[in-house]
Design a protein that fits this description.
Elements (H helix, E strand, L loop, with lengths): L1 E10 L2 E11 L4 E5 L6 H8 L7 E6 L2 E4 L5 H9 L1 E4 L11 H11 L5 H14 L15 H13 L5 E5 L7 H16 L3 E5 L3 H7 L2 E6 L2 E6 L1 H6 L4 H10 L2 H4 L3
Parallel strand pairs: 3-8, 3-9, 6-7, 7-8
Antiparallel strand pairs: 1-2, 1-4, 4-5, 9-10
The chain binds adenosine-5'-triphosphate and magnesium ion (MG).
Adenosine-5'-triphosphate binds next to β2 and α1.
Length: 251
């Protein structure tokens, strides 16, 4: 479970997140959509403390961090409970696929090398990349690199997986391959918080969609409620901009 309470973040005078509160329950898959520059990435990065929030409280499972008085131990505990997957994969180029998936397990989780290797092989098998274990990232397609990044994240046993536009750097074919991998991770019961522009994917996979605009959550609901019958004018405008008219008639 992830609970965000009254989270705010500014960069200089630019208030990017304004008193954002939300909750994601165990096993739930929630997607966040909204115009560019709205704070979606910043929100995910705050949960993982890649950005330090100015105010608010973040809870994952039974671990709460009040950003005003967080110690480094509190923050470390929070980071351990979430896994982040970026648009740009962020693999270590000088390490093999296997080493990439083992590294954080050894450094952060303090697992023994043998245990980390076994776990890495298991997760690489799951994402269909075990045959590539001795290759380097530069020898892989973007889709393959992203599947390795997914294996690396789930090998850390996060309570929640945070995915920031995991397919936006990929061409359509590779996008489908990565989305399929995300589906199979979801089918294993992983809780997920996903920023995506893949509407079909969000509709078919997510339990809930959150629409964000200018640092605020405007509206949230089931994919059907948000895509077919949005209540708020700003959501309506965004959805109609997102989906061409002829497409909307099929919804
Ligand atoms: N490190 C930073 N320093 C200064 N400003 C930042 C920083 N990161 C983000 N911003 C600003 O915060 C705002 C929100 O950015 P963010 O990346 O969270 O938006 P987004 O909703 O993810 O957009 P997109 O859909 O384009 O990815 C933007 O105005 C951006 O310029
Ligand atoms: Mg973003």
């Amino acid at each position: 479970m992830l609970k965000i309470e009254n989270l705010s973040k500014s960069f200089g005078n630019n208030k990017v997140l304004d008193n954002v509160s939300l909750q994601i329950n165990d096993g739930e898959i929630v997607s966040i959509i909204g115009p560019s520059g709205t704070g979606k990435t910043t929100l995910l990065r705050c949960v993982n403390y890649l950005e330090r929030p100015d105010e608010g409280k973040i809870t994952i499972d039974d671990h709460s961090v009040d950003t005003k008085k967080a110690t480094s131990k509190d923050i470390h505990g929070l980071c351990l409970r979430s896994g982040m997957v970026f648009q740009s994969y962020n693999l270590f180029n000088n390490k093999t696929v296997l080493e990439n998936v083992m590294e954080a397990q050894i450094v952060v989780k303090k697992r023994k090398k043998k245990e980390a290797k076994e776990r890495a092989l298991k997760e690489l098998e799951k994402v269909g990349m075990v045959d590539w274990k001795d290759h380097y990232p530069s020898q892989l397609s973007g889709g393959q690199q992203q599947r390795v990044a997914l294996a690396r994240a789930i090998a850390m046993d996060p309570s929640i997986l945070l995915l920031d536009e995991p397919t936006s750097a990929l061409d359509p074919e590779l996008t489908q391959e990565v989305l399929q991998t995300i589906r199979s991770i979801a089918a294993d019961g992983m809780t997920m918080f996903i920023v995506t522009h893949e509407i079909e994917f969000a509709k078919s996979l997510c339990d809930r969609i959150i629409f964000m605009d200018e640092g605020h959550i405007i509206e949230q609901g089931t994919p059907r409620e948000i895509f077919n019958d949005p209540k708020e004018k700003r959501t309506q405008e965004f959805i109609s901009f997102l989906l061409p008219q002829d497409y909307q008639t099929f919804l």
